[in-house]
Design a protein that fits this description.
204 residues; alpha+beta; six-stranded antiparallel β-sheet; 5 helices; 9 strands
Length: 204
């Protein structure tokens, strides 16, 4: 889960432009007052394997740990393939490992968004100041695999491609790469394809 909400209530409501919905208001939240020089405060709140990539003034800001976690997962997948002498996407090998990992969710340090009320205490958040023209790419780790796993783009290039090509085209590119390496021989991973969800916004 990745949420982006306006953090400043003393300024006019921030609006964002979506490729699908046109210009839409961004939700307001009384979290902070960080406006400066016409910029607006946006607070990001997240659990787990989603991230936000922000590009403004030719600089990239990464929010969340999803990209680093995805790279660690790829390293584990390579190790499993080496130890078992099987494909890292082999379900007989992978399912017990995935189930064991998921059984540890919402205990100890591993928390995800869930009906468990205790999860709310483990949400991560970060506030950034953004100016009109800033681009925000909110994405699941399956979509970010274009950068983390397959090296098709660097993070800033992925945001630029999302704006220039569109998310649908990037989704097709992602699935083409995965179909061409279904057994994970070139790109080690635990699943042939992961869920790939993304939303591109421009601050206006």
């Amino acid at each position: 889960m990745m949420l982006a909400v306006e953090a400043n209530l003393d300024q006019p409501s921030l609006r964002a432009r979506s490729a699908l919905a046109g210009e839409v208001p961004v939700a307001r939240s009384p979290l902070a007052d960080v406006a400066c020089e016409g910029r607006r405060g946006i607070t990001f709140m997240w659990f787990g394997d989603c991230a936000a990539l922000i590009v403004q003034d030719d600089a990239l800001t990464l929010v969340g740990e999803a990209m680093a976690a995805r790279k660690r997962e790829a390293s584990r997948a390579r190790l499993v393939a080496q130890e078992t002498k099987k494909s890292s996407t082999d379900r007989e090998v992978v399912l017990p490992l995935l189930r064991a990992a998921r059984n540890r969710i919402n205990s100890g340090r591993n928390w995800l968004f869930s009906p468990d009320i205790r999860a709310a205490a483990h949400v991560s958040q970060q506030t950034e100041t953004l100016a009109p023209g800033a681009l925000l790419l909110l994405a699941s780790d399956g979509f970010l695999a274009l950068t983390t796993d397959y090296g098709a783009y660097d993070p800033a290039g992925l945001v630029a491609a999302a704006k220039n090509k569109g998310l649908a085209a990037l989704g097709e590119e992602l699935r083409t790469i995965e179909a061409g390496d279904a057994k994970g021989e070139k790109f080690a991973r635990f699943k042939k394809s992961d869920d790939a969800t993304a939303l591109l916004l421009e601050i206006v």
